Amino acid sequence: MGKEFKEFIMRGNVVDMAVGIIIGAAFVTIVKSLVDDIIMPPIGLLLGNIDFANFFAVLKDGKVPGPYPTLALAKAAGAVTINYGLFLNTVISFLVVAFCVFILVKRVNRLKKEPPPAEPDTKECPYCLSTIPVKATKCAHCTAEIT
What we know:
This protein is mainly α. The protein has a domain at 119-147. Helices cover 54% and strands 9% of the residues. It has helices at residues 2-9, 12-46, 71-77, 84-112; strands spanning 57-60, 80-82, 122-124, 131-133. The strands form two sheets. Strands 1-2 form a two-stranded antiparallel sheet. Strands 3-4 form a two-stranded antiparallel ribbon. The longest helix is centred in the N-terminal third of the chain and has 35 residues, at 12-46. The chain is elongated, with a radius of gyration of 32 Å.
């Protein structure tokens, strides 16, 4: 069983997959920072200084009763919350990652696209079915005029 596992691990596609997962995890961190630190602040500013990370609903007050102005204070008080602002940030992060993956796959597919087939340099004579050059106007075999 150990030998089979070693063969499985050493396959090229398993190693490629592992590298992809590691790079993907690092990419997700970058995208999370992009959303949290670059995209959401201007959106919040345009909507009147709103911090989406602090959109939450209190289900149950904590040791210190609410209202809680920030999610951090609610969590520090031990309140049970639904954090829909953080969920919104996560959805936006997902959309950014999905768009980047879409662009990447589109570019890779463009690189893999096979070139169109070359124009043929011969054709068949419609009268004797012999092979003749494409530019021929008269068949060399049956002397028929080709249009």
